[in-house]
Please model this.
Amino acid sequence: MPTKLELAQSWLPRYTGMPVDRFGDYILLTNFSNYVARFAEQFKCDVYGEDRPMQAATNNRGLSIVKFGIGSPNAAIIMDLLAARRPRGVLFLGKCGGLKTTSEIGHFILPIAAIRGEGTSNDYFPPEVPALPSFKLHKFVSQKLNEAGHEYRTGVVYTTNRRVWEHDAEFQQRLQDMTAIAIDMETATVFIVGHRNEIARGALLLVSDVPITPDGVKTEESDARVTRNWADIHLQLGIDAMTHIEAQGENIKHFRY
Model:
C-alpha cells in the first residue's frame, strides 16, 4: 500500500490541478471562488483546477491560495493533502456567524480555540485534544490587523457539520451555554488536522451574519452585501500577513507531544 505522503503527493494535484512544486511555502485557504479570482487578478497568476473539486493559484512571492469547498470533511482533505508540500504556515480565511453582541457583521475574529462539534476531527485525535491555532502565526496576524487599523475579536469558535440549524431553539441554547463567540463549519478541523500533520495553522474569520437574532439570519442578499463591503479587506489582510510573516514574524516551530 502507498504511504500517506505518497497519496498526498498524488492527490493534491488530482484535486487542485496544480503540481505540488507550484505550491508556495505559505497557503491561504478559503471557501470562496471569488477570493481565488481576486488573488489571481491582483498577482496576474494562473488559476488551476477550474475543472477539479478545488481551485488553486500561486503568486510570484511564494504565496498560494486554495478554495477547498465548504465543511469540515473538505477542510480535513485539504489539510491532509497539504502534507505533500509541508507548508510553513496555513491561514484559513472563512466566514462565521456571530453569537455575541460584540461580534457584529463585518467584524473579524481571530479564534483562540475551536470547539470540536463537527465530528470529523475525531478521526485524528481523541475528543479531549483541544483544537488550537499556532500561537506565533496568530500573533503576527493580530499585528497586521492592528497596523491596518481593523477591529477584531478573540474567543472560542464552535465548529459544526450542521448547516441548517437556525430554526432549532434547543441547538441555539446549547450554543449560548458553550459561550462561543461565533459558529462555523471548518475552523476546528483545520486546527486539528494541521496539528496531526505538523502544519502551522490559523484562521481569520469574517462575521457574515448574526444567526441568533431573527433579522440576522444569512440570506443570499445579506451575504452578497457582506462580500461587497468586506471581502476585499479580508483577503488583503490574509495576503499581507502571509506574505510578510517569513521576513517579519517569529520563527514558527511545531513541537511533537
In short: The chain has a mean pLDDT of 91. DSSP finds seven helices and eight strands in the chain. Residues 105 and 207 are 5 Å apart (CA to CA). The first strand starts at residue 26 and ends at 30.
